[in-house]
Design a protein that fits this description.
With 170 residues, this protein is α/β, with parallel strands linked by helices. It has five helices and seven strands; from the N terminus they run βββαβαβαβαβα. Helix 2 packs parallel to helix 3. The longest helix is centred in the middle third of the chain and has 13 residues. It is globular.
Length: 170
């Protein structure tokens, strides 16, 4: 079970992963790094595209992972939606266009490679950044991710700052 200490949406030094799973983070995001970015959205008031929070879909069958990535991305100013299965992620992607999608590879029913291929076939998703965040780190796993349609393949544990930098560059 994950133990996560958060202060003002930042990570403190307490973070444990579930037994038998690869830890998600390799270091921690200090709480003093909270985003000062505000996203005004008064009802009936048009909001400039640059003022809207970017939307992210996080897909993983391990809720601890989706929870932690959700906190990290929310802290960075993203509007985050989570899905625990690839079919659920596809349903959400059909309902809403996301600015970035982060997915695990090893999931039951439909794996991340199949999800990436299916997402790329949806209208409007041919250029949406897809990032694999996975424990798969064999020599051909990155190539397989890129071939399936992912833009990046990040292996766990991740460095939160480097991960956010990567997402912002896509």
């Amino acid at each position: 079970m994950v133990s996560l200490a958060m202060i003002d949406y930042g990570f403190d030094s307490v973070l444990q992963s579930s037994p038998g799973l690869v830890p998600l983070f390799s270091q921690f995001l200090p709480s003093h790094q909270k985003s000062d970015q505000n996203f005004p959205a008064l009802e009936g008031t048009p909001v400039e595209e640059s003022q809207r929070p970017r939307s992210a879909l996080v897909v993983d069958d391990v809720s601890d992972v989706t929870d932690m990535l959700s906190v990290l991305l929310t802290h960075a100013g993203y509007d985050v939606t989570c899905a625990s299965t690839a079919p659920e992620a596809l349903a959400r992607a059909r309902e809403q266009r996301f600015d970035v999608i982060i997915s695990d590879i090893g999931m039951p029913e439909m794996n991340g490679y199949e999800l990436a291929e299916a997402l790329r076939s949806l209208p409007g998703y041919d250029s949406v950044p897809l990032v694999a965040v996975t424990g798969y780190s064999m020599f051909d796993d990155r190539t397989r991710s890129l071939t399936a349609g992912f833009n990046e393949h990040v292996t766990k544990p991740i460095d939160p700052r480097a991960f956010l930098d990567l997402i912002e560059q896509l």
